[in-house]
Specification:
With 758 residues, the chain is mostly beta strands. The chain is built from six helices and 43 strands. The protein is globular.
Length: 758
C-alpha cells in the first residue's frame, strides 16, 4: 500500500493522522506459529491467546490430572533462616524450544523442562530487585545475538538475559540493564515511584516498554509525577530510539484536550498492562490508563488525551497514527489496560482487520485496525454530572450500539441469602451510600457513592481471548462495586478519604461477599462479526454460602485462553478454581480446586509427540486481597493411566557465587518441625474437626501450613477434596499415601458439599 492519509472524524476518533504504511514492512518471524509452544505473553503479538492444540477436548477434559508442580520459592540455604512468606505472582510462563521460562516473585527467573519441571538454569536478579509480576518477553535472536528474555523490575530497570544460559547480556544498557528512570520521565524527582509492571513488546530490533509511575492519591499536586510515556529501545544495545508522549506536548495532537497548563508534569496516562503489535503492518497498539489523580479532575479540565484511550502508532518510529478515547476525562479509574486483541471480522464477504478494545467499564468496542473507525456505530450518550465543586466531568461518554455492556453498569443490591442481604442493606443505610443507577455515576462529594463497575472492573488488565474458528471473543467480567467519597484536603485540593479510600470493595470484608446482585463473575462470549452476545456463563462459586445459594459467580483477576480442541481455560476467580468451558456453548465441563486463586493467565503447549499440557500459576493475593497460600506452577495433562502422583520440584537455593546456578540433582521437600507451643495451638485447632477415622492424620498433615479453619470453611465434593489432598501432597504434606487416602475420605465425609454452613 502506498502513502496515504485519512480524514478527520468526529469525537469518537478526534483527529486521525494515519501516515504511510508500506507493504515492505516485515517483522521478525512470529514464533507463535509453532502450535506446540507459548513464546510470548498472550501467545502472539495480537494477544489472541488461541492455541491450535486439540488433543484435549470437551469429551476428555475431565480426564486431566496434575503432571508436575514447581514450587517457585527458593529452598533455604544451609544456616539461613527461610522466608516463610509466599508472594504474589501474575506470571504467564513462556514455552519455547523445549524450555519453559518462569519469572518468579522471588527475584529469580528460571528455565524449566516443560515436561518435568526440573530446573535448567536460574538467574538471580542483582541488587535484591524484584522482577515485574507479569512475566517476560522472548526474542528469538538474530545473527548478532542469541535468543533473549527481556523483563522489567520494581527498581525501574529493563533487563536482557540469554535465554539459553540465564546469563545477563552485558552489552545491553549498562551491565545488562537499562535504567528506565531517566530525567525525561522523572521530571518531578528521582525519588518518585517508577516501575515496569508488565512485559515489554518486541518489534523487529526494538523492545518497547510501557510505564508504572504510580497512582495519584489526590490533594494539591496529587496528579503530578513521573511521565507515563511509552518508549522503544534498541534490542542489542539498550539505546533509546523513540518516545511517545502519553500526555501530548504543545504542538502535538491532543494537547488542546488539557485546559491551561494542566498537561505539565502530569502523571498517569501510562500503559501498565499489555500492548500488542500488528507485525505485518508495523502498528503498535497502546492501551492507556487514566490520568492522575484518577478520581478527581478539577485541576485538568478537558477530555485529557490520551488518558483511558487506545492509541495506534508506527511501531518503528512511535509516530501517532490514530486514537480512540474510551472514557473522556476519566474520574473513575477506568483504565484501558486490557491487551488490544487483533482479530479478523467477516462482513459482506469481506475480511476486515480489526482490534477489540475493552476496559474496566466492561464496554467493548470493535475498531478497524488500520483506521481506528468503529465497525459498529458508537454514540455519545449523556451521563450524570459531578457534584464535586469545580469538576469538569464530560457530559457524554461513548457507547457502542452493539454489543451491550459485558458487565452491569447499574447497582442493584444482593437479594439472595437473607443474612447477607440484610447485612448489605444495613451497610448501605449506615453509611448513607448513593447507589449509582446510571453508567458513569461520578464519585460523590462528601457523601459515599457506589459506582458499577468499580475500580476493579468490569474487565481488568488480563482481557480476553479470541477463537477465530468461532469468531468469538471470550472474556471474564466482574460485578463488584466500589464505594468512593471525595472530600477537600488540608491544602485546599481534593482527595478520596475514609475507610473506602480506593481499597474497600462493596462487600462484606470478612466474608468477601459482594453486595451487588449476582452473578458476581461471568464468562462472556461476543460474536465479533455480529456484535451480539453469543453466551454468558456464571464463573465461580461461593463456598461459604448455603447449598442452593453458591452459584453466584466470583470476582477475580487473570484471564482465559482458547484452544483448537474447543475449550476455554480460565482461573482468575477468588474461589481458587481452575476451569474448562466449552467454547461454543459456554458450558462448564471441568474444574480443579487449586491451593490458592490463580490471578494469572494459563498457557498450553505440547511435546514432540503432540501430548498437550496446560499450565497455571497459583499464588493468591492481588487486588482482591485473597490469602497468599501457594507458590506454584501447576501443569496438567490427560491421564495416561500411569500410577503415582504428580512430580514435585522444589526451587533450588540461591547461589551467592553466580547469577546462574546449576540445577539441583532432584526435587526436595521442606520438613517442618513443631515446637511445644505450636503443638498446643494445633491441639486447640483440632477441636474444630469432628471425630472420625482420618481426623488425627488430617490434623498432622494440614496444620503445618495453615490453620484448620481453612479446611473447615470449605464444603466440597469428594472429587474436589481429592484434588485438595493431591495438592497438599505435592506441597510436601507430611503424610504417607495411606494417610492421604484416609484424609481425603475423612474430609469428604466431614465437610461435603451441601452440608449446612453457617
Amino acid at each position: 500500500m502506498g502513502p496515504g492519509s485519512v480524514r478527520i472524524v468526529s469525537r469518537w476518533g478526534h483527529a486521525f493522522l494515519l501516515v504511510a504504511l508500506f507493504s515492505s514492512w516485515r517483522a521478525s518471524p512470529d514464533t507463535s506459529k509453532d502450535g506446540g509452544s507459548w513464546p510470548m505473553v498472550n501467545l502472539d503479538s495480537g494477544a489472541t491467546r488461541f492455541s491450535t492444540l486439540s488433543q484435549i477436548t470437551p469429551a476428555n477434559v475431565n480426564q486431566l490430572k496434575v503432571a508436575w508442580i514447581y514450587h517457585m520459592k527458593p529452598a533455604a540455604t544451609a544456616g539461613s533462616t527461610a522466608d516463610t512468606a509466599w508472594r504474589l505472582s501474575e506470571d504467564q510462563p513462556l514455552v519455547v524450544a523445549k524450555t519453559m521460562f518462569v519469572v518468579t516473585p522471588y527475584s529469580r527467573v528460571v528455565a524449566l523442562d516443560p515436561l518435568t519441571g526440573e530446573e535448567k538454569w536460574v538467574c538471580v536478579i542483582p541488587g535484591a530487585d524484584q522482577a515485574s509480576l507479569r512475566g517476560a518477553a522472548y526474542w528469538p535472536g538474530d545473527t548478532a545475538q542469541g535468543a533473549s528474555l527481556f523483563f522489567g523490575t520494581n527498581h525501574g530497570y529493563l533487563y536482557s538475559i540469554d535465554a539459553a544460559t540465564g546469563k545477563i547480556n552485558m552489552a545491553f544498557g549498562v551491565n545488562g540493564a537499562v535504567n528506565l528512570r531517566t530525567p525525561e520521565v522523572m521530571s518531578t524527582g528521582s525519588d518518585k515511584t517508577y516501575i515496569l509492571p508488565s512485559p515489554p513488546v518486541i518489534y523487529k530490533n526494538l523492545v518497547i516498554t510501557g510505564a508504572g509511575p504510580g497512582e495519584g492519591r489526590g490533594g494539591t499536586g496529587g496528579g503530578l509525577g513521573p511521565a507515563g510515556d511509552t518508549r522503544a529501545w534498541d534490542i542489542h544495545t539498550g539505546r533509546l530510539v523513540w518516545t511517545f508522549h502519553s500526555v501530548p506536548r504543545p504542538g502535538e495532537v491532543g494537547h488542546d484536550s488539557w485546559g491551561g497548563d494542566s498537561w505539565k508534569q502530569r502523571s498517569g496516562v501510562n500503559v501498565w498492562g499489555y500492548m500488542t503489535v500488528d507485525q505485518d503492518r508495523g502498528i503498535l497498539y497502546m492501551p492507556f490508563g487514566a490520568p492522575n489523580f484518577d478520581r478527581v479532575g478539577t485541576d485538568r479540565p478537558g477530555d485529557n488525551l490520551f488518558g483511558s484511550s487506545i492509541v495506534a502508532a508506527d511501531a518503528a518510529t512511535g509516530k501517532l497514527l490514530w486514537y480512540f478515547q474510551v472514557v473522556h476525562h476519566d474520574i473513575w479509574d477506568y483504565d484501558t489496560e486490557a491487551p488490544p486483541t487483533l482479530v479478523d471480522v467477516h462482513r459482506d464477504g469481506k475480511t476486515i482487520p480489526a482490534v477489540v478494545v475493552v476496559n474496566k467499564t466492561g464496554i467493548l468496542f470493535v475498531l478497524d485496525r488500520v483506521t481506528g473507525k468503529p465497525l459498529f456505530p458508537v454514540i455519545e450518550r449523556p451521563v450524570p454530572p459531578s457534584n464535586v465543586p469545580g469538576e469538569h466531568a464530560s457530559p457524554t461518554q461513548p457507547f457502542p450500539v452493539t454489543p451491550e455492556p459485558l458487565a452491569p453498569m447499574s447497582v442493584q443490591l444482593y437479594q439472595g441469602e437473607p443474612e447477607h442481604a440484610a447485612w448489605c442493606k444495613d451497610y448501605v443505610e449506615k453509611n448513607y451510600m448513593l447507589l449509582g443507577k446510571e453508567p458513569y455515576t461520578p464519585p460523590a462529594f462528601n457523601g459515599y457513592s457506589v459506582n458499577l463497575p468499580g475500580t476493579h472492573g468490569g474487565v481488568n488488565y488480563a482481557g480476553g481471548t479470541f477463537d477465530p474458528t468461532r469468531g468469538l471473543f471470550i472474556v471474564n467480567v466482574n460485578n463488584l462495586g466500589q464505594p468512593m467519597r471525595i472530600v477537600r484536603d488540608e491544602a485546599g485540593g481534593y482527595t478520596n478519604a475514609g475507610e473506602f479510600a480506593g481499597t474497600m470493595r462493596f462487600w462484606d470484608p470478612e466474608k468477601h461477599l459482594p453486595c451487588t446482585a449476582t452473578p458476581w463473575g461471568e464468562l462472556v462470549a461476543v460474536d465479533v462479526n455480529s456484535g451480539k452476545i453469543a453466551w454468558r456463563s456464571v464463573l465461580g462459586v461461593t463456598d461459604n454460602l448455603p447449598e442452593g445459594k453458591q452459584q453466584t459467580g466470583r470476582p477475580g483477576l487473570g484471564g482465559p485462553i482458547t484452544t483448537g480442541g474447543g475449550l476455554t481455560f480460565v482461573g482468575a476467580t477468588d474461589d481458587a478454581r481452575f476451569r474448562a468451558f466449552d467454547s461454543g456453548t459456554g458450558k462448564e465441563l471441568w474444574s480443579y480446586h487449586l491451593p490458592a486463586s490463580a490471578e494469572s493467565i494459563p498457557i498450553t503447549y505440547s511435546d514432540d509427540h503432540g501430548k498437550q499440557f496446560v499450565a497455571i500459576v497459583s499464588t493468591g493475593g492481588g487486588l482482591l486481597r485473597a490469602p497468599l497460600l501457594s507458590d506454584e506452577v501447576i501443569v496438567f495433562t490427560l491421564d495416561d493411566g500411569a500410577s503415582g502422583g504428580p512430580k514435585v520440584v522444589q526451587a533450588s537455593a540461591n547461589s551467592a557465587a553466580s547469577q546462574s546456578v546449576a540445577a539441583p540433582a532432584g526435587p526436595s521437600q521442606m520438613v517442618q518441625k513443631l515446637d511445644p507451643r505450636m503443638q498446643a495451638i494445633l491441639k486447640r485447632q483440632a477441636a474444630l474437626l469432628p471425630p472420625g477415622p482420618g481426623r488425627d492424620a488430617t490434623t498432622r498433615a494440614c496444620t503445618p501450613c495453615h490453620g484448620l479453619d481453612v479446611v473447615t470453611n470449605q464444603h466440597l465434593t469428594s472429587q474436589e477434596w481429592t484434588n485438595v489432598v493431591q495438592t497438599m501432597s505435592a506441597k510436601g504434606a507430611p503424610a504417607t499415601p495411606a494417610e492421604l487416602s484416609a484424609i481425603q475420605a475423612y474430609l469428604a465425609k466431614a465437610f461435603p458439599r451441601g452440608s449446612g454452613q453457617d
